[in-house]
Amino acid sequence: MNTKKIRRGSHRIVSLKEKLLKKYRNLAVDKTILPLTERLETLGLVIRKLRKLWWIQQAKLPVARDGLGVTYTNKKIYAIGGRSDFNEDSLVQSTTSFVDEYDPDKDTWISRKKMIYPHTHQAVVTESNGKIYSLGGYIKFSMETQSDPQYTILAIMGSISDMVQQYDPVKNEWKLMNRMPLNRVFHQAVATNNGFIYVVGGVGYNFTWPDPNHPSNQEPKIKYLDDVQRYTPQTDIWESMAPMPTARYGLAVVLGKDGLIYAIGGINSQCKRIATVEVYNPSSNSWNQVTDMPTPRSDLSAVVSSDGKIYAIGGVADFSTIKTVEIYDPKSDEWAIAEPITIDRLCFGATITENDLIYVIGGSQHNSDINYHHFISSVEKCVL
């Protein structure tokens, strides 16, 4: 396990204070006159002011939900699928097919054409040609689709899917693509600049069920995945790549500005939340480990800013949702602590625009101590 490198200390606080005092003169105090305790209290007030300035509440998601996929393309943000209290049919289940488009300039949402098949906890990514892909996740079974041959798993409360659905934002159309080699959920995916999509980790079944080759009383077994698959949209072909060293699900995966793929956190095969960060090099088809994230967690999201820094946001630690934001610098292999988001959340979506505006969308709040779970529609924007 690598040693954590976290830059902390009073020098960072003083530096931050000086920057704040310079920017927000109306909050300034003379540090040569006030005693230390009062200066620190004043600094705390300034930091709280900054937190409100950094994380700004935006127009709410039309339907509160978690497990949604979020992606940014052509100056619009898309929130796709997810799980909600809102039922789209008469069955008692909550997997949705919603597609909502957000305009960052207008701070408004509009509805777009729904997914062909409702999914939640899928991976959603935009390929270099502007098409959006929804990959795997939990699939919803409804009375209208019970005889549909596209379903390989029929379970009233939903099952793990291998489906790939492509959305064209320009035409507002969906179509089915070649299925993934493995059914999976709680995985992630990234699209590279040279036209590939990489699907990483998750959990899945070790066989498709029901299956005539297996007895009806044999339950499918859950498998923690280290599997990595590469998809070529132009040819609609899948191929296996070098497996991730640590099998896990509920992880965050991002494409760095250096062209490397970063797999962050998640839950390992021992059902333990981890801080492990592993890096995949598409050129050499190989993995290596870098410095651990400060906070072991799962069900987080991550984005990459224009300067190459990786922001790991929210998730679950110690069985409750958190607000934590930590920043990784690939150049120095160091982590820094950042101001948290305003609302703790898990299984949410996050994306970043070309001008470094981070958007954190939807999700849910959870506290196992009091058996609390709540879907949220909150949208927060961070100006870097």
Describe the structure in your own words.
The chain has 384 residues and is mainly beta. It has two domains: 1-56, no CATH class; 68-302, Kelch-type beta propeller (Neuraminidase, 6 Propeller), CATH 2.120.10. The chain contains two helices and 34 strands. The chain has helices spanning 10-23, 36-54, and strands at 6-7, 55-57, 69-73, 76-80, 99-103, 108-111, 119-120, 123-126, 132-139, 159-168, 173-177, 188-191, 197-200, 203-205, 222-224, 228-232, 237-240, 248-249, 252-255, 261-264, 267-268, 277-281, 286-290, 301-304, 310-313, 316-317, 320-321, 325-329, 334-338, 349-352, 357-361, 364-367, 372-375, 379-383. It has a five-stranded mixed β-sheet, with no helix packed on it. Strands 7, 8, 9, 10 and 11 form a five-stranded antiparallel β-sheet that branches. A hairpin with a 5-residue loop joins strand 8 (123-126) and strand 9 (132-139). It is globular and about 40 Å long. The model is unreliable at 1-53, 142-146 and 151-158 (pLDDT under 50).
Brief rundown of the structure:
The protein has 384 residues and is mainly beta. Helix content is 9%, strand content 37%.
How many helical stretches? 2
Measured between the Cα atoms of the first and last residue, the distance is 31 Å
Structural class: mainly beta
How much beta, percentage-wise?
35-45%
CATH superfamily of the largest domain: Kelch-type beta propeller
Q: Provide the gyration radius in Å.
A: 22 Å
> Largest sheet, described in full?
5 strands, mixed
Number of strands: 34
Question: Low-confidence spans: pLDDT under 50, at least 5 residues?
Answer: 1-53, 142-146, 151-158
- Indicate the CATH class of the largest domain: Mainly Beta
What would the average pLDDT be, to the nearest integer? 82
- Quick one: overall form? globular
Strand order of the largest sheet: 1-29-28-25-24
Question: In CATH terms, what is the architecture of the largest domain?
Answer: 6 Propeller
- CATH topology grouping of the largest domain: Neuraminidase
Number of domains: 2
